[in-house]
Design brief:
Layout (H helix, E strand, L loop, with lengths): L3 E4 L3 H12 L4 H8 L11 E2 L5 E6 L2 E8 L4 E9 L4
Parallel strand pairs: 1-5
Antiparallel strand pairs: 2-3, 3-4, 4-5
Length: 85
């Protein structure tokens, strides 16, 4: 099953800013986020408490995202450099 990827708030803009600033260093992170449509719970993802939110760490970048199995969607809530929050 393929999930829909939704960019919440200004996360897509933030990713563009990271790519402009850091160039190709962001590519593995960007690829990992895009791969969430096929596997929203990859081995490196960490579930945040008893919620449907997960944290994904790729290199020096982090993403916080939420999985909605009912809607078959992954919503990227926040991205950034270490530490993000």
């Amino acid at each position: 099953m393929r999930y829909t990827l939704i960019w919440a708030n200004d996360t897509a803009r933030k990713l563009r800013e990271l790519r402009q600033r850091d160039g190709d260093a962001v590519k593995p992170f960007h690829d990992a986020i895009n791969n969430l449509v096929r596997d929203p719970r990859p081995p490196g993802a960490v579930r945040m408490g008893g919620t449907d939110s997960y944290r994904l760490h790729v290199g020096r970048y982090r993403a916080l995202y939420e999985i909605s199995d009912g809607k078959v969607a992954v919503t990227v809530l926040m991205i950034g450099n270490t530490p993000v929050w």
